Amino acid sequence: MARPFIITITTLLLVMWMASSVKSAPMSSKPKVILVSMDGFRHDYLSKVNNTPNFDMMLREGVTMPWIRNTFTTLTFPCHFTMVTGLYEESHGIVANNMYDSKTDRNRFRMSTTDDDWWTGHETIWTSAQKAGLKAGVYFWVGSASKIQGTRPERWFPYDGRVPFEDRVDTLVKWMSEDDFDLGLIYFNEPDHTGHVSGPEGHATLKEVERMDGILGRLLQKLNDTNLLDTVNIIVTSDHGMAATDSDTKLIDLRDYVNETLVANVIQQGSMASLIPQEGKAQELVDALKDVEHMTVMLKEDISERYHYKDHRRILPVLLIADEGWTISENGTYRRLNIPRFLGDHGYDNILSSMRPIFVARGPAFKQNAVVESIDTVDIYPLICHLLNIDPAPNNGSLERAATLLRVPPKFKENLGRVKKNTSEPSKH
Ligand SMILES: *[C@@H]1O[C@H](CO)[C@@H](O)[C@H](O)[C@H]1NC(C)=O
Ligand SMILES: *[C@@H]1O[C@H](CO)[C@@H](O)[C@H](O)[C@H]1NC(C)=O
Ligand SMILES: *[C@@H]1O[C@H](CO)[C@@H](O)[C@H](O)[C@H]1NC(C)=O
Ligand SMILES: *[C@@H]1O[C@H](CO)[C@@H](O)[C@H](O)[C@H]1NC(C)=O
Ligand SMILES: *[C@@H]1O[C@H](CO)[C@@H](O)[C@H](O)[C@H]1NC(C)=O
Ligand SMILES: [Zn+2]
């Protein structure tokens, strides 16, 4: 009499235990992370448009902040590399989109340069993940086409901006679902490009923001279709914002003030400029430029500490920073992304509101329907390491700061016996 009853109870308990462990398994044993960058997505773009149901859903079900504090210089390459290394630009060495380095094989770096020696020595999030035995796929990211510490992501592609955004999404979701990847990164070159053409308030730019909402919707829906939506932690952010400019009328022509007797080379120009002076002419060059309106000039050694933009050989002897909306040109005909007359640009001081990017996150680790204090883009790397439960390489970020996003705060003291340096700084803004 008693036996069938005991078996029934045992079976029932077993079923209940199995059900509960199945339910909690994705959160505890196999956390997944997707990091999305929509280039040039200014922090306040969503407030300028009406039709963004997918971002609205992310905000409702996830966590956001007024903006994320990005690094100087607010250019695409440096800012993207900061997100995946947790390092200030002076520490990861990708200090501009165009660079000069006497110690590399080829001295000049342009956005198409993938030579490994520009990227060595700085662990990225995909390297950290793969070192820990996890699988990482990167559908375009600054640095992903080069070997960093001897490895590339398990999946990667040479950059090709023409690949339809939908294809990028579909491939990423396949990696995460069919191939069970732990970490996925994906990059979209909009709304940046349209922002340069039409300016941050331009009709076309705001239309592009709505299109990017549709791309986000596709990602969310495909994750839902593959039963991953509630197990993946998704972070959607960007490298920088966008300021209104006019390259025809707000142009500083350096030829009006200096000539080749002072300047050996102009390596980067536009919203900021990096100059190599002729031998022994650095101070003279600074003196010639110090009264020029709508920009600031400084010797490398005088760059403000708040930029964390000084301590690297690729930061050149003379730095020029244009005032918001102004463009510096060595010869009066500077073009941005081959756009003859551009109405938007970035690269300016990272303290400007217009330079600040968006940040939204959703997933089992994140708070729901919450607006928290701003964190820094250097915090993204230690945050993702925490989400994946792996050890971060030395970095300038702070998990303590990023913890404000999390439902369950990390235990800083024990932390599974890991020794951690407290790298957080008192916040500045
Ligand atoms: C996910 O799919 C379920 C049905 O399987 C549906 O009820 C739900 O609304 C979907 N969620 C999203 C965000 O698409
Ligand atoms: C360029 O340098 C030459 C020689 O020193 C000088 O005569 C000329 O005035 C300079 N031009 C400008 C724009 O400073
Ligand atoms: C100005 O410099 C650019 C390269 O930065 C060059 O392509 C262009 O032809 C130059 N224009 C003039 C007027 O010298
Ligand atoms: C940033 O982190 C790197 C690597 O740990 C370190 O060398 C550098 O000193 C840090 N920078 C600051 C400003 O703390
Ligand atoms: C880390 O340093 C920051 C700033 O000095 C401080 O506010 C914070 O309490 C520290 N965190 C820990 C865990 O010691
Ligand atoms: Zn960018």
UniProtKB/TrEMBL annotation:
The keyword Signal appears for this protein: yes
Alphabetical UniProt keywords: Signal
GO terms for MF: hydrolase activity
Pfam families: Phosphodiest
SUPFAM superfamilies the record matches: Alkaline phosphatase-like
Signal peptide residues on this chain, from the entry's feature table: 1-24
PANTHER family, A to Z: BIS(5'-ADENOSYL)-TRIPHOSPHATASE, ECTONUCLEOTIDE PYROPHOSPHATASE/PHOSPHODIESTERASE
Name by which UniProt lists this protein: Ectonucleotide pyrophosphatase/phosphodiesterase family member 5
Organism: Plakobranchus ocellatus
Lineage: Eukaryota, Metazoa, Spiralia, Lophotrochozoa, Mollusca
